[in-house]
Amino acid sequence: MSGEVLSQSEIDALLSAISTGEMDADELKKEDTERKVRVYDFKRALRFSKDQIRSLTRIHENFARGLTTYFSAQLRTYVQINVASADQIPYEEFIRSIPKMTILNVFEVPPLDGRILMEVNPNIAYAMLDRVLGGRGTSVNKVENLTEIETKIMSNMFERAFEHLQEAWASIAEIDPIFTDFEVNPQFLQMVSPNETVVVISLNTHIGETSGMINICIPHVVLEPIIPKLSVHYWMQTAKKERLPQEIEVLEQRIKKAELPIVAELGSTDISIQDFLTLDIGDVIELNQIIDAPLVVKVGDVPKFIGQPGKANKRLAVQILEKIEGGDEDGK
């Protein structure tokens, strides 16, 4: 029985069978020592580890937050989207699990091979459509009779929504999602072979008072080149990217060309509001600095130098006398 968890009723039945003599405890021990043969279903091959599934879950939690922000702005109503589950199943099983008529959006994600499918429950899709067209978000499932205008509005809306996947996947791959197909009947859509393993991320979606699921179906062929990046070791790496000498040189040249404001203060003073209001042409304001005292030269409002005023080529100028040591952003 190793590797299996028995319920309380199964345990009670087992103890009862041993006490009544229906089962022999020695035979049970003998069976336990023998090698167990486990049936393996090749149609349900597990090609992703739990660690990799958890990484995909974290990535699509970011995607769900991006969708929440996007749809909230587009629909101008309460929207909440979060990851409900992430599972790996055969493609055939996924197709059987979704409605016979639903909203299917197919995307390519170059440079990765294969296509990704976003299935939107009709209740959710029609609630979105109703809000976009100025309604209250009422869901009326008539997916079999979509008009060309409704199809175009839906496909445009979901095409822009899927762009948020690019940002969510940025840590593992630089993808460029491209909308390629819009379908309502899953039977007409054969992305991969029926037994191909796919990862299905289910997003629990609430739009106003309507709720439903959005499913992201990712075939193994899409994720295969980036599977190593889904491990914990990749996420734990902290190696810093070193800048190339050419990049450093370009950065230095740009910094040298940056302009800074330099101000030489002749002095300052404080006056009352009453005096300020009575100022007139010809009035003189007395500064708190002696005429022959050195000036403070500020760079970006920070005192940096001591200088004296003068002229150079018949223009006003300031000669730097010394540097103010310890000058910081607070002017100390």
TrEMBL record:
Asked if the Swiss-Prot or TrEMBL record annotates the protein with the keyword Transferase, the reply is: no
Q: Which InterPro entries match?
A: CheC-like_sf (IPR028976), Flag_FliM (IPR001689), FliN-like_C (IPR001543), SpoA-like_sf (IPR036429)
By its UniProt entry, which CDD domains does this protein fall under? FliM
One GO cellular component assignment for this chain's record is:
bacterial-type flagellum basal body
**Organism from which the protein derives:** Peribacillus deserti
GO MF annotation terms: cytoskeletal motor activity
What is this protein's record name? Flagellar motor switch protein FliM
> Membrane topology for this entry?
Peripheral membrane protein
Main subcellular location of this protein, as a coarse class? other
